[in-house]
Write a structure and sequence with these properties.
- By secondary structure, the protein is an alpha/beta fold.
- Helices cover about 55% and strands about 5% of the residues.
- It has a five-stranded parallel β-sheet, with helices on both faces.
- β2, α2 and β3 form a beta-alpha-beta unit.
- The chain is elongated and about 95 Å long.
Length: about 325
């Protein structure tokens, strides 16, 4: 039988795609139905992770890579062939089928693309972990990095993320979130190698999952919270109990920018319902402290407000210099 023969019923070709991010054997019901009903199942990759599970289910799989013409001929007489796609897909096969279909000389079988497994939300994070594993081993620079050496990059990426948010640049926001995520994965990968207290990205994720569930009993438990303020109050109470803190000031990083530090202290005081008068003293520092506390009480982030004002000042400077309007310049 030849692919150009007009006599026989054309049959059916099913291209079965699977995700390497899902455990092998976890296929959809339509995929299992197609596999069991097929006259022939083919896979070009003898090491495909699905093959042991297909054979365990009683499905005979031919380790073959037929051409488009051969596959069409094999479907003559109304037969169905299922091709289990490799990780790279089947570009040669699909291109060949498209070429034959476009020629108008071949009676084509029914063609179907059937996803057998789907990525769950967050599945691409597995790719990031795998890529980071390889880079850590094979890259001369990455393999030598330490937590301390990477610290400055974490700060830089966090500031760039804030800038993208304040600029309202959605594309930049997506990219900067990725850069921040990279820092998390990179540090977790380095932490795996610690000889005394190693931990992995799964430990990091597991820790934050547990923390979020514990601190959101109004979502995962029996408590109720109807306002953001109630949520924040419970969060702080739970956090203090977890860490056995004696003061609301504990856990506030003193190395952060001054305005942000002052606002954070004021926020803790206000949330805890404390009456703490501002210290009096001479100098600009105390004036800035009072401004930061006033801003926090008004719901204004003093750091963000100052950045907005500073950018306006920057724009005025550029205008005075006769330079290109700042909104058209990408720094």
């Amino acid at each position: 039988m030849n692919a150009t023969s007009p006599e026989a019923a054309p049959g059916r070709i099913v291209l079965l795609t699977t995700s390497h991010r899902v455990a092998p054997g976890l296929l959809s019901w339509p995929a299992w139905q197609a596999l069991h009903a097929a006259d022939r199942v083919l896979c070009a990759d003898g090491a495909h992770p699905q093959l042991p599970y297909l054979r365990e289910a009683g499905i005979a799989v031919d380790e073959a890579a037929p051409t488009a013409e051969q596959l069409i001929d094999g479907c003559a007489g109304g037969r169905t062939a299922v091709v289990v796609a490799t990780g790279e897909g089947e570009p040669a096969l699909t291109d060949g089928l498209a070429r034959l279909a476009g020629s108008g000389r071949v009676r084509m079988p029914e063609l179907e693309l059937l996803p057998a497994s789907y990525d769950l939300p967050g599945a691409r994070l597995l790719d990031l972990v795998q890529v980071m594993d390889r880079i850590r081993v094979e890259c001369p620079w990455s393999s030598q990095q330490t937590h301390k050496g990477l610290a400055k990059y974490g700060i830089e990426e966090a500031y760039e993320l804030v800038e993208a948010i304040e600029d309202g640049d959605r594309e930049e926001l997506r990219e900067e979130l990725g850069d921040v995520l990279l820092q998390v994965v990179f540090h977790a990968r380095i932490a795996e190698e610690d000889p005394e207290s190693p931990f992995s990205i799964d430990d990091v994720a597991g820790g934050i999952v547990g923390k979020l569930i514990h601190r959101h009993p109004h979502v995962f438990g029996d408590e109720t919270a109807t306002t953001p303020e109630e949520v924040k109050e419970h969060w702080l109470r739970t956090k203090a109990a977890e860490k056995r803190r004696e003061s609301v000031t504990e856990g506030i990083p003193l190395g952060q920018p001054g305005l942000a530090l002052a606002a954070k202290l004021a926020s803790r005081v206000r949330t805890a319902g404390l009456e703490v008068p501002l210290p009096t003293g001479e100098g600009l520092g105390y004036e800035l402290l009072a401004l930061a506390v006033r801003a926090e009480a008004s719901g204004v982030d003093p750091e963000a407000a100052l950045r907005v004002a500073a950018r306006t000042y920057r724009d005025a400077i550029r205008t005075a210099e006769g330079l290109t309007p700042p909104d058209t310049v990408k720094e």
